Every structure is written in structure tokens, then in C-alpha cells.
Amino acid sequence: MRLRNKPGAKETIANNPQYILTDASDWKGRWDERFEKKQPIHIEVGSGKGQFIVGMAKANPTINYIGIELQTNAIISILEKQLVEKLPNLQLLLVDGADLTEYFADGEVDQVYLNFSDPWPKTRHIKRRLTYKTFLATYEKIAKPGAELHFKTDNRGLFEYSLASLSQYGMVLNQVWLDLHETGLEGNVMTEYEEKFSGKGHPIYRLEARFTDKV
């Protein structure tokens, strides 16, 4: 995803530490303190421009959400939305999703969302896919026992790979959608990409999977 540079983006981020952090290592194990209420914590890894995470926070006030994005020019769009909405259950984190164990304690997260992640289609880039086993191990480490991972994409190849990767890792597939908008899902909040691709008639693939308790 290539985005235009937004003038003043870094300054806006620096001026709003109540909503966004660029280094959250000091908050590891203390994320409840960043929110108005102590509630379940759901994170989205790769939040893009934030339509999904903002929509989820508005629709579910009894859940605390953290949007995680690496690109400054993307997360500034989420911050701009949050400066208007001022949602007490939404925080933003400008960091690399590969380093989540630096920012979250073991068992601190209740649910993980991956939406329209970069498919990295070339085999030599397989380790960069957010459903590769090393990423799954990271999510599992910071997640509560039995936590769920929800994944959406328009890329069939990535979806097929992810089904296999999650299964080989030992996760339980709770539900799978091969055409989300045809079969429907109550309370579905769309991302920007989802609106774009579904509007062109492309099927949207989705799954819900659960980490199993390791003996």
C-alpha cells in the first residue's frame, strides 16, 4: 500500500500521545491503564487507514481496541478519525507487527485481527506473511489461552496458504467463509480494501480460528 506523505503527520502524532504511541515498551503488561475502563483487548495488526478498527471501536464500546500499523502515512489517517471521534476504547500503535512481544505481556490480548494483509506471493517471501508460523507464535504468546484470530482477505492464494498454515500450527478453525458478502456475517465491519474489492464483485475470504491450550 503506497500512500502520499501527509504534511505535518509526524507533528500531529507527537502532539497526541493520549491516542497514539511510537514506543509502547513501557506499557507492556499495563495496557488496561491506557483505557477508560478495564475491558477485553482486541488488536488489529496492519490497520491501514483505520476504517475497520474505528468502526469496531464504535460498534463495541465494551471492548478495548488497539490498531497497530507500521506506516506513518497510514496511521495518521486513523489518528485523524480518532481526533474527531475521541473513542475512549481505541488506542493506536505505530510499530512493526513482528515485534509485538516487546509491547504486550504474555496473555494480555483477547483477540487478534488480520485484514487484507500483504500477500507476499513469492515463495522467497513466505516468512513475511502475517499468517506464517513465526507470526502465529507471536500472537499466541501475547494472547490469552483459547484466544481467537480473525482473518479477511481478497487474495485466494494467501487465504489457501493461511488455512494450511493455521492448521499445521495446531489452531482450530471455527468457521470459514469463501464468499463473505454472499453468505453474510452479522455485524461485519468492512475495511477500505473490502469495500473496494467487494464493490468490483470480488469474493472476500474470511476465517475465525482459535489457539488451542498447549499441554
TrEMBL record:
Q: Could you give one GO CC term from the UniProt record?
A: tRNA methyltransferase complex
Enzyme Commission number(s) of this protein: 2.1.1.33
Task: Write out the residues that bind substrate.
Answer: 122, 154, 191-194
Q: Name one GO molecular function term.
A: tRNA (guanine(46)-N7)-methyltransferase activity
Q: Which InterPro entries match?
A: SAM-dependent_MTases_sf, tRNA_(Gua-N-7)_MeTrfase_Trmb, tRNA_methyltr_TrmB_bact
Q: Does the keyword Protease apply?
A: no
A Pfam cross-reference name: Methyltransf_4
Q: Which domain of life is it from?
A: Bacteria
Keyword list, A-Z: Methyltransferase, S-adenosyl-L-methionine, Transferase, tRNA processing
- Detail which positions bind S-adenosyl-L-methionine: 44, 69, 96, 118
Q: Which family does it belong to?
A: Belongs to the class I-like SAM-binding methyltransferase superfamily. TrmB family.
Q: What does this protein do?
A: Catalyzes the formation of N(7)-methylguanine at position 46 (m7G46) in tRNA.
Give the NCBIfam families listed for this entry: PRK00121.2-2 (NF001080), tRNA (guanosine(46)-N7)-methyltransferase TrmB (TIGR00091)
Protein name as catalogued: tRNA (guanine-N(7)-)-methyltransferase
Q: Which organism is it from?
A: Vagococcus penaei
